[in-house]
Amino acid sequence: MSEILKVENLTVTLDGTNIIENLNFNLEKGENLAIIGPNGSGKTVFLKTLIGLFPYQGEINWSEEVKLGYVPQKIDADRHLPVDLENLLNAKANVLGLKKSEVRAVTESAKITEKILKTPIGHLSGGQFQRALIAFALLGNPNVILMDEPTASIDQAGEEQIYELIHELQDKYGITIILVSHDLSVVYRYATKVLCLNKTGLCFGPPESALTQDVFKKLYGEEHKYVHHLHNKENA
Amino acid sequence: MLSETYSIILALLAAGAAGLVGAFALMKKTVLAGDVMSHVAIPGLGLAMMWQINPLFGGALTLFIGALIISRLERKTSLSSDAAIGVIFAGSVALGALLINSKEELIDALFGGFGGLSMNEFIFGVVSSLLIVVSLWILRNKLIINLFSGELAAAAGINIGRLNFWFLLLFSLSILLGLRFLGALLAGALIIVPASAARQFTHGLGSFLICSILFSVLSMMAGFAISSAYGLELGPTVVMVAAAIFALSLLKKKE
Protein backbone atom coordinates (compact mmCIF):
# COMPACT_ATOMS: atom_id res chain seq x y z
CA MET A 1 0.00 0.00 0.00
CA SER A 2 1.21 3.48 -0.74
CA GLU A 3 0.65 6.71 1.08
CA ILE A 4 -2.16 8.83 -0.32
CA LEU A 5 -2.40 11.67 2.19
CA LYS A 6 0.03 13.25 4.61
CA VAL A 7 -1.22 15.92 7.02
CA GLU A 8 1.50 17.75 8.95
CA ASN A 9 1.17 20.45 11.60
CA LEU A 10 -2.17 21.48 10.14
CA THR A 11 -3.74 24.55 11.69
CA VAL A 12 -6.96 26.10 10.37
CA THR A 13 -7.94 29.54 11.61
CA LEU A 14 -11.35 31.01 10.83
CA ASP A 15 -12.32 34.50 11.98
CA GLY A 16 -9.32 34.62 14.30
CA THR A 17 -10.16 31.34 16.09
CA ASN A 18 -8.12 28.17 15.70
CA ILE A 19 -10.62 25.52 14.62
CA ILE A 20 -7.93 22.92 14.06
CA GLU A 21 -4.56 22.98 15.74
CA ASN A 22 -1.40 21.12 14.92
CA LEU A 23 -2.99 18.01 13.40
CA ASN A 24 -0.75 15.21 12.10
CA PHE A 25 -1.46 11.85 10.43
CA ASN A 26 -0.82 9.79 7.29
CA LEU A 27 -3.26 7.72 5.30
CA GLU A 28 -2.63 4.79 2.98
CA LYS A 29 -4.39 4.13 -0.29
CA GLY A 30 -7.63 2.12 -0.08
CA GLU A 31 -8.17 2.80 3.61
CA ASN A 32 -11.43 3.77 5.21
CA LEU A 33 -10.76 6.57 7.67
CA ALA A 34 -13.48 7.54 10.13
CA ILE A 35 -13.22 10.92 11.82
CA ILE A 36 -15.04 11.17 15.14
CA GLY A 37 -15.35 13.92 17.69
CA PRO A 38 -17.93 15.97 19.61
CA ASN A 39 -19.97 18.73 17.99
CA GLY A 40 -17.88 21.74 17.12
CA SER A 41 -14.64 19.77 17.18
CA GLY A 42 -13.72 20.86 13.65
CA LYS A 43 -14.66 17.70 11.70
CA THR A 44 -16.54 19.46 8.93
CA VAL A 45 -14.01 22.28 8.71
CA PHE A 46 -11.28 19.67 8.43
CA LEU A 47 -13.01 17.91 5.50
CA LYS A 48 -13.58 21.21 3.74
CA THR A 49 -9.97 22.16 4.29
CA LEU A 50 -8.90 18.85 2.75
CA ILE A 51 -10.83 19.65 -0.44
CA GLY A 52 -9.43 23.16 -0.57
CA LEU A 53 -12.37 25.27 0.59
CA PHE A 54 -10.53 26.87 3.53
CA PRO A 55 -7.05 28.36 3.84
CA TYR A 56 -4.67 26.67 6.28
CA GLN A 57 -1.19 26.62 7.73
CA GLY A 58 0.97 23.50 7.73
CA GLU A 59 0.97 20.77 5.10
CA ILE A 60 -1.73 18.80 3.31
CA ASN A 61 0.00 16.57 0.80
CA TRP A 62 -2.19 14.44 -1.43
CA SER A 63 -0.34 11.93 -3.61
CA GLU A 64 -0.17 12.97 -7.23
CA GLU A 65 -2.78 10.69 -8.77
CA VAL A 66 -5.48 11.76 -6.32
CA LYS A 67 -8.92 12.79 -7.60
CA LEU A 68 -11.29 13.92 -4.88
CA GLY A 69 -15.02 13.41 -4.58
CA TYR A 70 -16.96 15.19 -1.85
CA VAL A 71 -20.28 14.34 -0.23
CA PRO A 72 -21.34 17.21 2.05
CA GLN A 73 -23.32 16.76 5.25
CA LYS A 74 -26.44 18.48 4.13
CA ILE A 75 -27.40 20.85 1.41
CA ASP A 76 -30.10 23.41 1.89
CA ALA A 77 -31.25 22.86 -1.65
CA ASP A 78 -34.21 25.01 -2.57
CA ARG A 79 -37.21 22.68 -2.57
CA HIS A 80 -38.69 24.53 -5.51
CA LEU A 81 -35.65 24.46 -7.73
CA PRO A 82 -36.85 23.17 -11.13
CA VAL A 83 -33.75 21.00 -11.47
CA ASP A 84 -33.86 17.21 -11.42
CA LEU A 85 -31.01 14.88 -10.65
CA GLU A 86 -30.42 14.18 -14.32
CA ASN A 87 -29.97 17.93 -15.01
CA LEU A 88 -27.50 18.12 -12.19
CA LEU A 89 -25.44 15.07 -13.16
CA ASN A 90 -25.41 16.14 -16.81
CA ALA A 91 -24.27 19.60 -15.74
CA LYS A 92 -21.30 18.21 -13.84
CA ALA A 93 -20.47 15.77 -16.64
CA ASN A 94 -20.49 18.71 -19.05
CA VAL A 95 -18.30 20.91 -16.84
CA LEU A 96 -15.77 18.07 -16.45
CA GLY A 97 -15.98 17.17 -20.15
CA LEU A 98 -17.27 13.64 -19.51
CA LYS A 99 -19.43 11.48 -21.75
CA LYS A 100 -23.12 10.83 -21.08
CA SER A 101 -22.26 7.14 -20.56
CA GLU A 102 -20.38 8.12 -17.41
CA VAL A 103 -23.59 9.54 -15.97
CA ARG A 104 -25.22 6.15 -16.59
CA ALA A 105 -22.34 4.40 -14.87
CA VAL A 106 -22.48 6.44 -11.67
CA THR A 107 -26.26 6.23 -11.40
CA GLU A 108 -25.94 2.47 -11.64
CA SER A 109 -23.17 2.41 -9.03
CA ALA A 110 -25.23 4.54 -6.65
CA LYS A 111 -28.36 2.45 -7.38
CA ILE A 112 -30.34 5.34 -8.75
CA THR A 113 -33.40 4.46 -10.78
CA GLU A 114 -34.73 6.25 -13.85
CA LYS A 115 -37.57 7.58 -11.73
CA ILE A 116 -35.22 9.14 -9.17
CA LEU A 117 -33.23 10.71 -12.02
CA LYS A 118 -36.34 12.53 -13.22
CA THR A 119 -37.42 13.69 -9.78
CA PRO A 120 -36.83 17.36 -8.87
CA ILE A 121 -33.98 17.55 -6.35
CA GLY A 122 -36.18 19.05 -3.65
CA HIS A 123 -38.60 16.12 -3.82
CA LEU A 124 -36.09 13.34 -3.15
CA SER A 125 -36.35 11.44 0.12
CA GLY A 126 -33.43 11.61 2.58
CA GLY A 127 -31.96 8.32 1.39
CA GLN A 128 -32.45 9.12 -2.30
CA PHE A 129 -30.89 12.54 -1.81
CA GLN A 130 -27.85 11.02 -0.14
CA ARG A 131 -27.44 8.51 -2.98
CA ALA A 132 -27.80 11.42 -5.41
CA LEU A 133 -24.95 13.24 -3.64
CA ILE A 134 -22.83 10.10 -3.81
CA ALA A 135 -23.55 9.73 -7.55
CA PHE A 136 -22.63 13.38 -8.02
CA ALA A 137 -19.36 12.83 -6.14
CA LEU A 138 -18.59 9.68 -8.18
CA LEU A 139 -18.76 11.55 -11.50
CA GLY A 140 -15.23 12.09 -12.72
CA ASN A 141 -13.90 8.83 -11.23
CA PRO A 142 -12.53 10.03 -7.90
CA ASN A 143 -10.16 7.70 -6.08
CA VAL A 144 -10.75 9.40 -2.74
CA ILE A 145 -14.21 10.23 -1.43
CA LEU A 146 -14.73 12.52 1.54
CA MET A 147 -18.09 12.21 3.26
CA ASP A 148 -19.50 14.34 6.02
CA GLU A 149 -21.96 12.33 8.13
CA PRO A 150 -23.54 10.72 5.07
CA THR A 151 -26.45 9.32 7.06
CA ALA A 152 -27.28 12.25 9.33
CA SER A 153 -30.75 12.76 7.90
CA ILE A 154 -31.74 9.18 7.11
CA ASP A 155 -33.63 6.51 9.05
CA GLN A 156 -31.96 3.31 10.22
CA ALA A 157 -32.85 1.22 7.17
CA GLY A 158 -31.68 3.90 4.75
CA GLU A 159 -28.51 4.30 6.76
CA GLU A 160 -27.72 0.63 6.39
CA GLN A 161 -28.13 0.90 2.60
CA ILE A 162 -25.82 3.89 2.36
CA TYR A 163 -23.05 2.16 4.30
CA GLU A 164 -23.47 -1.00 2.24
CA LEU A 165 -23.19 1.17 -0.87
CA ILE A 166 -20.04 2.89 0.37
CA HIS A 167 -18.55 -0.46 1.25
CA GLU A 168 -19.37 -1.87 -2.18
CA LEU A 169 -17.78 1.09 -3.93
CA GLN A 170 -14.68 0.60 -1.89
CA ASP A 171 -14.50 -3.11 -2.72
CA LYS A 172 -15.24 -2.56 -6.38
CA TYR A 173 -13.01 0.42 -7.16
CA GLY A 174 -10.55 0.44 -4.26
CA ILE A 175 -11.61 3.98 -3.40
CA THR A 176 -10.11 5.54 -0.30
CA ILE A 177 -12.84 6.81 2.00
CA ILE A 178 -12.60 9.60 4.55
CA LEU A 179 -15.79 9.75 6.53
CA VAL A 180 -17.03 11.90 9.36
CA SER A 181 -19.35 9.85 11.52
CA HIS A 182 -21.09 10.17 14.84
CA ASP A 183 -22.07 6.52 14.74
CA LEU A 184 -19.49 4.39 16.51
CA SER A 185 -21.00 1.09 15.37
CA VAL A 186 -20.26 2.19 11.81
CA VAL A 187 -16.73 3.11 12.80
CA TYR A 188 -16.12 -0.32 14.28
CA ARG A 189 -17.71 -2.13 11.34
CA TYR A 190 -16.28 -0.30 8.37
CA ALA A 191 -13.33 1.88 9.30
CA THR A 192 -9.76 0.64 8.96
CA LYS A 193 -8.47 3.75 10.72
CA VAL A 194 -10.06 6.22 13.07
CA LEU A 195 -9.03 9.81 13.81
CA CYS A 196 -10.33 11.34 17.03
CA LEU A 197 -10.58 15.05 16.51
CA ASN A 198 -11.17 17.73 19.06
CA LYS A 199 -9.39 20.73 17.66
CA THR A 200 -6.30 18.58 17.52
CA GLY A 201 -5.86 14.84 16.96
CA LEU A 202 -6.44 12.82 20.13
CA CYS A 203 -6.08 9.38 18.61
CA PHE A 204 -5.21 7.76 15.31
CA GLY A 205 -5.06 4.12 14.33
CA PRO A 206 -7.25 1.03 13.85
CA PRO A 207 -10.48 1.50 15.86
CA GLU A 208 -9.87 -1.52 18.08
CA SER A 209 -6.60 -0.19 19.43
CA ALA A 210 -7.08 3.57 19.04
CA LEU A 211 -10.43 3.92 20.78
CA THR A 212 -9.59 3.44 24.42
CA GLN A 213 -11.57 4.47 27.47
CA ASP A 214 -8.98 7.15 28.06
CA VAL A 215 -9.38 8.60 24.57
CA PHE A 216 -13.16 8.77 24.95
CA LYS A 217 -12.74 10.63 28.23
CA LYS A 218 -10.49 13.17 26.58
CA LEU A 219 -12.69 13.39 23.50
CA TYR A 220 -16.14 13.68 25.04
CA GLY A 221 -15.26 14.62 28.59
CA GLU A 222 -17.08 11.63 30.11
CA GLU A 223 -17.08 7.87 29.96
CA HIS A 224 -18.65 6.97 26.71
CA LYS A 225 -21.75 4.83 26.75
CA TYR A 226 -20.80 2.86 23.71
CA VAL A 227 -17.67 1.52 25.31
CA HIS A 228 -19.72 0.36 28.28
CA HIS A 229 -22.04 -1.31 25.91
CA LEU A 230 -19.24 -3.22 24.22
CA HIS A 231 -17.79 -4.25 27.53
CA ASN A 232 -21.16 -5.48 28.72
CA LYS A 233 -21.47 -7.54 25.59
CA GLU A 234 -18.08 -9.07 26.17
CA ASN A 235 -18.95 -9.83 29.76
CA ALA A 236 -22.24 -11.47 28.86
CA MET B 1 -33.15 57.85 -36.47
CA LEU B 2 -34.52 54.42 -37.22
CA SER B 3 -38.12 53.45 -37.82
CA GLU B 4 -40.29 51.87 -35.16
CA THR B 5 -39.75 48.41 -36.65
CA TYR B 6 -36.14 48.52 -35.39
CA SER B 7 -37.37 49.55 -31.98
CA ILE B 8 -39.75 46.61 -31.88
CA ILE B 9 -37.08 44.13 -33.01
CA LEU B 10 -34.66 45.38 -30.37
CA ALA B 11 -37.35 45.41 -27.68
CA LEU B 12 -38.30 41.80 -28.39
CA LEU B 13 -34.67 40.65 -28.36
CA ALA B 14 -34.02 42.52 -25.12
CA ALA B 15 -37.17 40.96 -23.64
CA GLY B 16 -36.03 37.47 -24.60
CA ALA B 17 -32.65 38.04 -22.96
CA ALA B 18 -34.34 39.47 -19.86
CA GLY B 19 -36.60 36.41 -19.63
CA LEU B 20 -33.62 34.07 -19.67
CA VAL B 21 -31.61 36.13 -17.17
CA GLY B 22 -34.72 36.28 -14.99
CA ALA B 23 -35.13 32.51 -14.96
CA PHE B 24 -31.61 32.07 -13.57
CA ALA B 25 -32.00 35.03 -11.20
CA LEU B 26 -35.20 33.49 -9.83
CA MET B 27 -33.46 30.18 -9.24
CA LYS B 28 -30.52 32.00 -7.62
CA LYS B 29 -33.02 33.85 -5.42
CA THR B 30 -31.34 37.12 -6.30
CA VAL B 31 -34.38 38.64 -8.01
CA LEU B 32 -35.05 41.29 -5.42
CA ALA B 33 -31.49 42.53 -5.11
CA GLY B 34 -31.47 42.40 -8.88
CA ASP B 35 -34.62 44.41 -9.16
CA VAL B 36 -33.28 47.30 -7.14
CA MET B 37 -30.07 46.95 -9.11
CA SER B 38 -31.84 48.77 -11.91
CA HIS B 39 -32.08 51.84 -9.68
CA VAL B 40 -28.30 52.13 -9.78
CA ALA B 41 -28.73 53.25 -13.39
CA ILE B 42 -30.59 56.43 -12.34
CA PRO B 43 -27.59 58.59 -11.31
CA GLY B 44 -25.84 57.48 -14.50
CA LEU B 45 -28.81 58.58 -16.58
CA GLY B 46 -28.72 61.88 -14.69
CA LEU B 47 -25.01 62.41 -15.38
CA ALA B 48 -25.46 61.59 -19.06
CA MET B 49 -28.31 64.06 -19.35
CA MET B 50 -26.14 66.71 -17.68
CA TRP B 51 -23.25 65.99 -20.06
CA GLN B 52 -25.70 65.70 -22.96
CA ILE B 53 -24.51 62.27 -24.09
CA ASN B 54 -26.60 59.18 -24.77
CA PRO B 55 -28.28 58.42 -21.41
CA LEU B 56 -27.51 54.74 -21.81
CA PHE B 57 -23.75 55.44 -21.58
CA GLY B 58 -24.29 56.93 -18.17
CA GLY B 59 -26.58 54.06 -17.17
CA ALA B 60 -23.96 51.55 -18.29
CA LEU B 61 -21.29 53.31 -16.25
CA THR B 62 -23.13 53.32 -12.94
CA LEU B 63 -24.58 49.83 -13.49
CA PHE B 64 -21.05 48.52 -13.95
CA ILE B 65 -19.86 50.29 -10.81
CA GLY B 66 -22.93 48.94 -8.99
CA ALA B 67 -22.13 45.39 -10.15
CA LEU B 68 -18.56 45.74 -8.86
CA ILE B 69 -19.74 46.95 -5.46
CA ILE B 70 -22.42 44.29 -5.08
CA SER B 71 -20.07 41.54 -6.12
CA ARG B 72 -17.62 42.67 -3.42
CA LEU B 73 -20.39 42.73 -0.84
CA GLU B 74 -21.60 39.29 -1.93
CA ARG B 75 -18.19 37.81 -1.26
CA LYS B 76 -18.31 38.92 2.34
CA THR B 77 -20.97 36.91 4.07
CA SER B 78 -21.60 39.44 6.80
CA LEU B 79 -25.20 40.34 7.56
CA SER B 80 -24.55 44.01 6.98
CA SER B 81 -24.23 43.56 3.21
CA ASP B 82 -28.02 43.51 2.86
CA ALA B 83 -28.21 46.82 4.63
CA ALA B 84 -25.34 48.21 2.57
CA ILE B 85 -27.07 47.17 -0.67
CA GLY B 86 -30.26 48.87 0.53
CA VAL B 87 -28.38 52.09 1.25
CA ILE B 88 -26.67 52.02 -2.15
CA PHE B 89 -29.98 51.64 -3.95
CA ALA B 90 -31.84 54.30 -2.00
CA GLY B 91 -28.85 56.60 -2.39
CA SER B 92 -28.81 55.97 -6.15
CA VAL B 93 -32.45 56.96 -6.58
CA ALA B 94 -31.94 60.10 -4.48
CA LEU B 95 -28.70 61.10 -6.24
CA GLY B 96 -30.27 60.46 -9.64
CA ALA B 97 -33.30 62.59 -8.81
CA LEU B 98 -31.01 65.46 -7.73
CA LEU B 99 -28.88 65.19 -10.88
CA ILE B 100 -31.83 65.19 -13.25
CA ASN B 101 -33.26 68.68 -13.07
CA SER B 102 -36.21 68.58 -15.42
CA LYS B 103 -39.34 66.71 -14.36
CA GLU B 104 -39.84 65.42 -17.87
CA GLU B 105 -36.36 63.89 -18.04
CA LEU B 106 -36.83 62.38 -14.61
CA ILE B 107 -40.00 60.64 -15.79
CA ASP B 108 -38.12 59.37 -18.87
CA ALA B 109 -35.31 58.02 -16.70
CA LEU B 110 -37.72 56.32 -14.33
CA PHE B 111 -40.21 54.95 -16.82
CA GLY B 112 -38.39 54.79 -20.15
CA GLY B 113 -38.42 56.52 -23.52
CA PHE B 114 -35.23 58.30 -24.59
CA GLY B 115 -36.09 59.77 -27.98
CA GLY B 116 -35.24 58.04 -31.26
CA LEU B 117 -33.17 54.93 -31.65
CA SER B 118 -29.85 55.32 -33.49
CA MET B 119 -28.27 52.64 -35.68
CA ASN B 120 -25.33 52.33 -33.27
CA GLU B 121 -27.62 51.79 -30.34
CA PHE B 122 -29.62 49.25 -32.34
CA ILE B 123 -26.51 47.26 -33.20
CA PHE B 124 -25.22 47.48 -29.63
CA GLY B 125 -28.60 46.24 -28.37
CA VAL B 126 -28.80 43.30 -30.77
CA VAL B 127 -25.22 42.23 -30.04
CA SER B 128 -25.76 42.57 -26.29
CA SER B 129 -28.95 40.51 -26.37
CA LEU B 130 -27.19 37.75 -28.26
CA LEU B 131 -24.20 37.99 -25.92
CA ILE B 132 -26.47 37.49 -22.91
CA VAL B 133 -28.20 34.46 -24.38
CA VAL B 134 -25.01 32.81 -25.64
CA SER B 135 -23.12 33.48 -22.38
CA LEU B 136 -25.91 32.02 -20.28
CA TRP B 137 -26.01 28.98 -22.56
CA ILE B 138 -22.28 28.47 -22.05
CA LEU B 139 -22.43 29.08 -18.29
CA ARG B 140 -25.64 27.13 -17.69
CA ASN B 141 -24.04 23.96 -16.35
CA LYS B 142 -21.84 25.82 -13.89
CA LEU B 143 -24.79 27.95 -12.84
CA ILE B 144 -26.97 24.88 -12.27
CA ILE B 145 -24.36 23.21 -10.05
CA ASN B 146 -23.84 26.47 -8.16
CA LEU B 147 -27.60 26.86 -7.67
CA PHE B 148 -27.69 23.45 -6.09
CA SER B 149 -24.66 24.00 -3.86
CA GLY B 150 -21.88 26.54 -3.97
CA GLU B 151 -19.74 24.18 -1.97
CA LEU B 152 -20.11 21.34 -4.46
CA ALA B 153 -19.46 23.77 -7.29
CA ALA B 154 -16.23 24.87 -5.62
CA ALA B 155 -15.29 21.24 -4.97
CA ALA B 156 -15.81 20.54 -8.70
CA GLY B 157 -13.28 23.27 -9.48
CA ILE B 158 -15.73 26.01 -10.45
CA ASN B 159 -14.59 29.55 -9.58
CA ILE B 160 -17.79 30.71 -7.87
CA GLY B 161 -16.70 34.31 -7.36
CA ARG B 162 -16.00 34.73 -11.04
CA LEU B 163 -19.19 32.90 -12.04
CA ASN B 164 -21.35 35.13 -9.84
CA PHE B 165 -19.65 38.24 -11.16
CA TRP B 166 -20.27 37.16 -14.76
CA PHE B 167 -23.89 36.59 -13.94
CA LEU B 168 -24.17 39.99 -12.31
CA LEU B 169 -22.65 41.61 -15.41
CA LEU B 170 -25.11 39.82 -17.69
CA PHE B 171 -27.90 40.86 -15.35
CA SER B 172 -26.74 44.49 -15.49
CA LEU B 173 -26.48 44.34 -19.28
CA SER B 174 -30.01 43.03 -19.44
CA ILE B 175 -31.20 45.94 -17.30
CA LEU B 176 -29.31 48.35 -19.53
CA LEU B 177 -31.14 46.96 -22.56
CA GLY B 178 -34.46 47.38 -20.79
CA LEU B 179 -33.81 51.01 -19.78
CA ARG B 180 -34.83 52.53 -23.10
CA PHE B 181 -38.17 50.77 -23.12
CA LEU B 182 -39.05 50.40 -19.46
CA GLY B 183 -37.00 52.94 -17.52
CA ALA B 184 -34.89 52.43 -14.42
CA LEU B 185 -37.81 51.72 -12.11
CA LEU B 186 -39.36 49.04 -14.27
CA ALA B 187 -36.42 47.47 -16.16
CA GLY B 188 -36.04 44.95 -13.35
CA ALA B 189 -39.69 43.95 -13.68
CA LEU B 190 -39.20 42.33 -17.07
CA ILE B 191 -36.51 40.19 -15.51
CA ILE B 192 -38.54 39.09 -12.50
CA VAL B 193 -42.19 38.95 -13.45
CA PRO B 194 -42.17 36.65 -16.53
CA ALA B 195 -39.78 34.25 -14.79
CA SER B 196 -42.02 34.12 -11.72
CA ALA B 197 -45.06 33.36 -13.89
CA ALA B 198 -43.14 30.74 -15.88
CA ARG B 199 -42.13 29.03 -12.66
CA GLN B 200 -45.81 28.55 -11.79
CA PHE B 201 -46.60 26.94 -15.11
CA THR B 202 -43.64 24.56 -15.48
CA HIS B 203 -41.84 21.75 -13.69
CA GLY B 204 -38.75 20.93 -15.71
CA LEU B 205 -35.69 23.12 -16.21
CA GLY B 206 -35.90 23.31 -20.00
CA SER B 207 -39.59 24.18 -20.10
CA PHE B 208 -39.08 26.78 -17.35
CA LEU B 209 -36.33 28.58 -19.27
CA ILE B 210 -38.28 28.57 -22.54
CA CYS B 211 -41.52 29.64 -20.88
CA SER B 212 -39.78 32.52 -19.10
CA ILE B 213 -38.37 33.80 -22.40
CA LEU B 214 -41.75 33.44 -24.12
CA PHE B 215 -43.68 35.28 -21.39
CA SER B 216 -41.19 38.12 -21.46
CA VAL B 217 -41.34 38.44 -25.27
CA LEU B 218 -45.12 38.14 -25.19
CA SER B 219 -45.40 40.92 -22.57
CA MET B 220 -43.26 43.19 -24.72
CA MET B 221 -45.24 42.40 -27.88
CA ALA B 222 -48.61 42.91 -26.23
CA GLY B 223 -47.23 46.01 -24.50
CA PHE B 224 -46.29 47.56 -27.85
CA ALA B 225 -49.67 46.72 -29.38
CA ILE B 226 -51.77 47.94 -26.44
CA SER B 227 -49.74 51.10 -25.77
CA SER B 228 -49.87 52.21 -29.40
CA ALA B 229 -53.57 51.33 -29.79
CA TYR B 230 -54.61 53.29 -26.70
CA GLY B 231 -51.86 55.92 -26.65
CA LEU B 232 -50.37 54.67 -23.37
CA GLU B 233 -46.77 54.75 -22.12
CA LEU B 234 -44.88 51.67 -23.30
CA GLY B 235 -42.98 50.72 -20.12
CA PRO B 236 -45.86 50.62 -17.66
CA THR B 237 -48.06 48.84 -20.24
CA VAL B 238 -45.48 46.08 -20.77
CA VAL B 239 -45.10 45.56 -17.05
CA MET B 240 -48.89 45.47 -16.56
CA VAL B 241 -49.17 42.75 -19.22
CA ALA B 242 -46.42 40.76 -17.48
CA ALA B 243 -48.18 41.25 -14.15
CA ALA B 244 -51.45 40.03 -15.70
CA ILE B 245 -49.73 36.86 -16.93
CA PHE B 246 -48.34 36.39 -13.44
CA ALA B 247 -51.82 36.85 -11.95
CA LEU B 248 -53.15 34.19 -14.33
CA SER B 249 -50.35 31.85 -13.32
CA LEU B 250 -51.46 32.10 -9.70
CA LEU B 251 -54.83 30.65 -10.69
CA LYS B 252 -53.09 27.51 -11.85
CA LYS B 253 -52.92 25.10 -8.98
CA LYS B 254 -49.50 23.57 -8.62
CA GLU B 255 -49.14 19.95 -7.69
Task: Record the SSE blueprint.
The complex is a heterodimer of chains A (236) and B (255).
Chain A (H helix, E strand, L loop, with lengths): L2 E12 L2 E12 L3 E5 L6 H8 L6 E6 L5 E4 L13 H12 L3 H10 L4 H4 L8 H13 L5 E5 L7 H18 L2 E5 L3 H7 L2 E6 L1 E6 L1 H4 L2 H8 L4 H11 L1
Parallel strand pairs in A: 3-7, 3-8, 5-6, 6-7
Antiparallel strand pairs in A: 1-2, 1-4, 8-9
Helix pairs in contact in A: 3-5, 5-6
Chain B lengths: L3 H25 L2 H7 L3 H11 L3 H21 L4 H20 L3 H9 L7 H30 L1 H6 L4 H27 L2 H13 L3 H26 L3 H18 L4
Helix pairs in contact in B: 1-7, 1-9, 1-10, 1-11, 2-9, 3-4, 3-5, 3-6, 4-5, 4-9, 6-9, 7-9, 9-12, 10-11, 10-12, 11-12
How does this model look, in words?
The complex is a heterodimer of chains A (236) and B (255). Chain A is of the alpha/beta class and 236 residues long. In chain A, the strands form two sheets. A six-stranded mixed β-sheet of chain A has the order 5-6-7-3-8-9, with helices on both faces. Chain A has a three-stranded antiparallel β-sheet with strand order 2-1-4, covered by helices on one side. Chain A has helices spanning 43-50, 85-96, 100-109, 114-117, 126-138, 156-173, 184-190, 207-210, 213-220, 225-235; strands spanning 3-14, 17-28, 32-36, 57-62, 68-71, 144-148, 176-180, 193-198, 200-205. Helices cover 40% and strands 26% of the residues of chain A. Chain A folds into two domains: 3-66 and 143-235, P-loop containing nucleotide triphosphate hydrolases (Rossmann fold), CATH 3.40.50; 79-141, no CATH class. In chain A, strand 1 (3-14) and strand 2 form a beta hairpin. Chain B is mainly alpha-helical. Chain B has a single domain (4-251), classed as Orthogonal Bundle (ABC transporter involved in vitamin B12 uptake, BtuC). Chain B is 84% helix and 0% strand. Chain B has helices at residues 4-28, 31-37, 41-51, 55-75, 80-99, 103-111, 119-148, 150-155, 160-186, 189-201, 205-230, 234-251. In chain B, helix 1 (4-28) packs across helix 10 (189-201). The radius of gyration of chain B is 18 Å and the shape is globular. The N and C termini of chain B lie far apart (50 Å). The relative contact order of chain B is 0.17.
